Structures are given as C-alpha cells and as structure tokens.
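Sequence only, no structure available. Ideas?
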Amino acid sequence: MLERLANLPRTAANSRLLARRADILLRLFGVDHMRLSACKTRVHGDYHLGQVLVSRGDVFIIDFEGEPMRFLGERRSKQLPLRDVAGMLRSFDYLVEASRRAGNSGAPDGLLPEMWSAFLSSYQSGIAGTPSLPVDPKQAGEVLLIYLLEKSIYEIGYELSNRPDWVEIPIRSFLRLIEEPVVTFE
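Reply:
I predicted one. Tokens follow.
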C-alpha cells in the first residue's frame, strides 16, 4: 500500500512518508512480538464517531462487522480494546480536518490534543482494573501508538481507493505520530 503513494503528486508529506518505509514496517510488526500484560477480547473493529449514535440521553454503538477491507478471520480474531481506542482517536482527527475543509476556521489547532486527552482520560478511568489494558502505562502507550499507525496506514489505502483528495489527512497524521509520538497512559 505504501508503494501506491509513489503515484501521488510529490508533496513534502508524501516524500517524508516514503523515506520512512523501513521504520514504519518495524514499528507495525512490533506489537506482535511484545510480551503483553493484557488479555485480548472481541472488539468493534471499526470504531469511530460514525458508529456512535446518541438519542434521548443514551448512546448506541452500531455496525460491529469490523473494517470492511480486512479479511473475515482477522475481523473475528480477539484483539486488545486499544485497537478501538485508536479508531476513535483517528476519527477525531478527521472531524477536525473535515471542519476545516468545510470552512470552519473556529477549529483551533489545540482542539485535537484536547479531544484526545479527554477521551483517553475517560477511557482509562472506565477500563481501570480490567485485564484488557496493559498494566504498564508505557506499554499501553506503545501498543496504542502502533494501533494508531496501523489505522493511519489503513486509512491511506482507503482514501487512495475512495477519496484521493483526502489522502493527505491520514498521511499528515501518520507522520505526526511517527515523528512526534505523544501517546501516553500516565
């Protein structure tokens, strides 16, 4: 999938992404070799803002079939719930960018980190003490970062196939994550 970027117009972001290919692959395969202090479970698999409905003071999560481009066996396999956390965090990135594209200049640059921080804080307090979150906060942050990178790569492939004019959103996010990792669980 990263090879498909070679056909895109040469931008600084695309060139930086292609130059980091080896580092990217090493990072993504890292989670498979970690000794995790957490239990895997069934996850949503495609969790984002579009899968959450709010009605009459209640919240409904819909569409539990997982990411459509993944094989069925992969969608059915047990994962760490941090994979779904990564999906929601990536969704916040799209929300801010879509708002900017729609001409809403009211989306401040600091909004995305604030959204991430609020979501992660709530998630941590909600899942505290369960066996599905790595005990070591550093390890939890590393796993979440890998899932965020993986999700960004998935999104790059999706955007190349469906909305090429949006591909810069996951590319910029991916580069931000790989160059300035700011995911912490402390």
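The beta strands are 52-55, 58-61.
Hope that gets you unstuck.
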